[in-house]
Amino acid sequence: xxxDWMKRRDFVSLLxxxxxxxxxxxxxxxxxxxxxxxxxxxxxxxTPARRDIAAKHLAGVVDARRFVEGKAYExxxxxxxxxxxxxxxxxxxxxxxxxxxxxIYDISQDGWAWGQLAGDGYxxxxxxxxxxxxxxxxxxxxxxLRTFVFxxxxxxxxxxxxxxxxxxxxxxxxxxxxxxxxxxxxxPILHVAPVETLETDFVAVAERFLGTPYLWxxxxxxxxxxxxxxxxxxxxxxxxxxRDSDRQEQAVGGALAWSGEPRQLRRGDLVFWKGHVAIVRDxxxxxxxxxxxxxxxxxxSAAAIARIRASASxxxxxxxLPPAAGPKLTKR
Length: 332
Hints:
Order of helices and strands: HEEEEEEEEEEEEEEEEEHEEHHEEEEEHE
Number of strands: 25
Low-confidence stretches: 1-39
C-alpha cells in the first residue's frame, strides 16, 4: 500500500476463503452457499446485488426488493468507465474495453447502466451510451498499446476512434494494410491479431506499458493501476485473472515460502503487499504501476521493498505461476 488513502484494493475479500477462478463467485448460483450469502459472504465487487435490485439467480440468496433477469450488451465505446455510483465524479472501479460483454440489470432515466462484466465479473455503473446490443463474437483483438480506427483505407484520413490494447473487434475482411471491421472501420493490420492468438511472456507484455501514467481503476494504455497491469498482461497469455490485487493474491499461481530475500525471486513472480502488486522482471527488478512514480515503472526490488516498508507495509506473499503458464525465461 503506497498511501493510506488508497483503500479500494485494500479491503479484505468478503468471500472468507480461497477464490476459485474463473468466477466461482461471478454468479455463485443459489445452490452454492445460501447461508453464506444471507450472512453477507458474497464479495460485492463481483455480486450483482443491491438493496433495491439483484440478479434473478440470486433470489432467495441475497436480500433485495426485486430480482430481474439481466440483458446482454457489449461495450460499443472505445472504453467505458465502471464506477461505484451513478455519477461521473464517482470512484472509478475499473474500465471495460470495446467488445467486452456485459449483463445489464438496470438502466436509469439519467443514462446510467448497472451490470456485471462477463470477463472478470466486476459489477458497477457505466454510461448507457457506451453500450449496444451484442453482435457476432469478436474475431480479433488489439495487440498494439493503442491503435486508430480510420473511416477508409488510408492513414491520412482523420481517425474516428482510438482503441487500447485488448479491445475486441469483429473483422469482416482484410487487405495488405488494414483489417476492415463489420462496421467499415479500417484498423492497421499490424495492430491486431485473431482472438485465439496468445502471448508467451506476460512480463514482456507488461513491459510494453512502461511509462503509462498511473490511474486508479485504469486498464488502458492511457492510464492503468497495479492490478490492471497484471490482469491485462496475464489475459494476453490466456491466463484468467481477477481484477483486484487481494483476489489475485488468492487466485493466481501458488504461494512461495517468502524468505524476505529478493534474490529468491525470479521473472514472472508476483509480489503482494496490502493493496498493491508488483511483477518481478528479473532477480533485481520489479515492474509495477505505482503512485510513487505515478506511472508503470521499473524499480530495484530491494529498494521497492524498503520504500514500501517505510510506509508501514510489508510483503504479504509471493506467488509463482506454474511453469506452463509462466513467462519463458530469457537471458538479459
